[in-house]
Amino acid sequence: MTCNTNKRDTDDTDFRNVLDSYNDREANCIFCELSASRIIAENELCIAIKDAFLVTEHHTLVIPKQHVADYFDLHQPERNAIKAMLHDQRGKILEEDPTVTGFNADASAGQTVFHIHVHLIPRREGDVVDPRGGVRGVIPSKQKY
Ligand code: AMP
Ligand code: ZN
């Protein structure tokens, strides 16, 4: 059997740096400095809070504990934690409120708080006149197709 020495099954990731980054916090960041009473759920790597200015009833934000601006700079375990939290919160909202018929779950581009967060926004039948093309509305002129 030949052995190709160019191929490696390891990489150079320093996992101590990854673990350290989970603890990164920033002074004066509203999501790093949330008081415990605002937190409605928590797992190892993220939290959930109610949005202070609800788009719809039960609008929830899922926020990694690490202070990082861009979703794509999160490590996979943080993405997994966010996904698990989104599922938990979705389940709780559906249990609590039978009028909810769907959700938008999205991290915003053009964000105003530069600590990444995923909006979980419950939707209800008839909440907008014509829901077709919903996510396309990020560029209003492209919404209808
Ligand atoms: P964006 O960065 O565009 O995704 O929007 C930030 C979101 O954070 C908005 O929906 C705000 O209503 C919400 N928000 C801003 N300040 C607070 C706060 N102190 N607690 C909870 N939600 C907040
Ligand atoms: Zn922060």
Structure, described:
The chain is an alpha+beta fold and 145 residues long. It has a single domain, classed as HIT family, subunit A. The protein contains two helices and five strands. The longest helix is centred in the middle third of the chain and has 21 residues, at 76-96. It is globular, with a radius of gyration of 19 Å. The N and C termini lie far apart (57 Å). The structure holds adenosine monophosphate and zinc ion. Adenosine monophosphate is lined by residues 30, 49, 51-53, 61, 108, 111-113.
Number of domains: 1
Could you tell me the CATH topology label: HIT family, subunit A
- Assigned CATH superfamily: HIT-like
The neighbouring-strand order within the major sheet is 1-2-3-5-4
Mean pLDDT, all residues: 92
Helix content: 10-25%
Structure class: alpha+beta
